[in-house]
Amino acid sequence: MSQSPSLRGGRAGVALSGLVLVALLGLATWLWWPQDSGGVLRMNMPSLTLSDLSGQELDLDRYRGRVLLVNFWASDCPGCIAELPELIRLQQIYGERGLQVIGIGLPSDSVEGEQAVASYYHIPYPLLFDARGEAARAFGEVQLTPTTFLVNREGKIVYRQVGEARLASWERRIQPLLAAPLRSAAGAAPAAQ
Fold first, then answer.
1. Among the CATH numbers 3.40.50.2300, 3.40.50.720, 1.10.3720.10, 3.40.30.10, which is that of 36-179?
2. Entry pTM
3. Rounded Cα distance, 97 and 175, in Å
4. CA-CA distance, 75 to 113, in Å (whole number)?
5. What is the pLDDT of residues 52-64, one digit of tens each?
């Protein structure tokens, strides 16, 4: 017995809808799942100059040679607020050894909201505001907060975390980078002085 054309078309539409749903779920999983490069360096950290919360410009290139944790956040993001004490602690523990945490607020947030949070938590690291979205674009179209990038001493992004992460997880990733010497442009470690 043959099926009517409308019944076959209905099944094809359901199948296509199912495929679209699977593709969307896969994309969502990729965005939310921590993206580890497995030691393969993916891209250079972009060179950017942004304003801090008091309006002073800060060039991110001034931190080259340090291990950076670049955290895109928002003052009204529950996950961002939950991880603030962990980021503060990382800066306190590893700052002297070469780690620099940097917070970047997205254009959807407000300087006033970020100033209130910074004051309440006594944030000891620079907070910058990405008023035009240029940093979010340069780091790969950051749209979700928190999104954090780990950058090695050579300025290469080696890890991306979408969503909050715990102190122990960051320590496992940061400690080897802090122990690694800064390499010269030719790829060799600089001579000891």
1. 3.40.30.10
2. 0.74
3. 10
4. 6
5. 999 999 999 999 9
